[in-house]
Amino acid sequence: MNNNYLIPANSKKSILYFGLFTTFDLILFGSGLGLSLILVMIIPLGNFLLALLAISPGVISGFLVFPVPYYHNVLTFLKSVIRFYTERRKYPWKGWCFLDEKENK
Question: What is the CA radius of gyration of the chain?
Answer without folding.
Answer: 23
